[in-house]
Amino acid sequence: MRRSHAVNRCAQWRDPVNNYRYAKTPQVDLNADIKDKAQFSKLTPPLSTAAVDFLDRLNSRLDNKRIEVKILLVARTVADLEGAKSIRRADVSEAVDLMGLNHEYFRAITR
User: Fold this and answer.
1) How confident is the model at residue 1 (pLDDT cuts 50, 70, 90)?
2) Domain assignment of residue 54, given as a range
């Protein structure tokens, strides 16, 4: 299957970043290969304080660890695309939006 030009450009940028980040972890090649929060914490830089506070508010509402890890993975990808070294609150907020969690039920916590 042929990839589009945009996908090829993204892969050319993404591969060196992920190869560097996950060089010492052979079972992980991409952000999506991370299975749980403990592994995520070991392999990525610490989150900003604002991002941690925002995630804590989300978790009190969601009460679902699988969703938390998925949000972190999407936020890590957003931060990578922005060229940020760590995940910021804005990255977590954008991840929530991209995942469709900005539904009316979640609006109070995504502001």
Assistant:
1) very low
2) 30-109
